[in-house]
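Ticket #4471: structure export looks truncated?
Reporter: QA, pipeline team
Priority: medium

Steps to reproduce: submit the single chain below to the structure queue and open the exported record.
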Amino acid sequence: MRALAAGGPDAVRVESLAKDLGVSKGGFYWHFDDRAALVAETLDAWEKTGTEDVIATVDADVADPRAKLRRLFELAPSAKGLFAVELALRDVSRRDPTVARRLRRVDRRRTEYLRSLFAEFCVDEDEVEARAMLAYSLFIGSYFVSAQHGKRSRARVMQLAIDRLLE
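Actual output as written to the record:
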């Protein structure tokens, strides 16, 4: 995953990885049957660490749905430094159907979790769906926006946005 985050999809080639690991191509294939197996294992690790582990931590830490959402926004961006991997995978998914399918699965799981939390304090289904979409878009999109926020820090603006979602 570090190679993907640092160098993008071109860095996830058998030759490059074997060299970085200090092993021969044969040594690499001792660990993985082929590049597809490497990609599958990378996707599994990303999904577990960046989604399932984060959800499990949030669920274990707090009970109130609004507090869970705040905790989620604290944890998710820093999920063991995986956001660079997330961005690289989103880029790769435009060209790789296997990665695209996994990305859809992860996006679906994350938005389902958001829906479940918003549904605990929003009775209107449209409101639940809109808030889940806005929250997930805020999480993903905030890494693509480099706007200045006047006198406010980016962290403060993010906090204001989260506050609006939780009203």
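Status: closed, not a bug. The export was complete when the record was re-opened. Leaving a note from the reviewer for reference: The CA atoms of residues 58 and 68 lie 6 Å apart.
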